[in-house]
Amino acid sequence: MADWDKIAILKIQSAPQPPEGMIRLSGPLEHDNIVNGDGLRAVVWTQGCPNHCKGCQNPETWDFEAGMMIEIDEICKRLAEFPGQTGLTFCGGEPFVQPAACKKIADYVRKELGWDVWSFSGFTHEQIKAAGGEAWEFLKSLDALIDGPFILSQRDLSLRYRGSKNQRLLHLELGTGKILSIE
Q1: pLDDT grade for 6, boundaries at 50, 70 and 90
Q2: Strand bridging mode 41-45 / 87-91
Q3: Which end of the chain is more exposed for a tag (fewer CB within 10 A), N or C?
Q4: Is the dihedral of CA 36, 38, 43, 49 positive or negative?
Q5: Is the separation of the CB atoms in 106 and 177 below 8 Å?
Q6: Is 59 within a domain?
Q7: How many percent of the chain have pLDDT more than 70?
Q8: Does 101 reside within a domain?
């Protein structure tokens, strides 16, 4: 295993967690979004990221103590009030450093609202799988993952849903996390 992978796994496993039943967000919930996944989507903007990618479009989301702590039940209630959405996307920050909270929200919107669920991550699918635990369980609740760190030297604005050429849009098998296809 490469040193970068070992560091990534440590970052996932050692990130500060919000209290049970809470999630730390960087801003308000978004709805009617058409740029962070297929269809009309709600977006949850998580707070806290250990990766600090050069050229990141959201550096204000890096600080684990910033943003606002909100009850997961309140997030679910608000999401249910967004008419016409077909899916939910987790952006950040880094959703995989709050995996238990994100999974609870993902499970709610899938079961109660019938939405699909996507997430962005600066970690790769392989790193999340190797980290295991709650991060892997959250990944298994997704329909799609855009993975890998943003690399400024590989920036490409022509890519669908991605910012740099190293990032992948992975379509996943629900419940297993198995990669079904890669864009």
Answers
A1: confident
A2: parallel
A3: N
A4: negative
A5: no
A6: yes
A7: 100
A8: yes
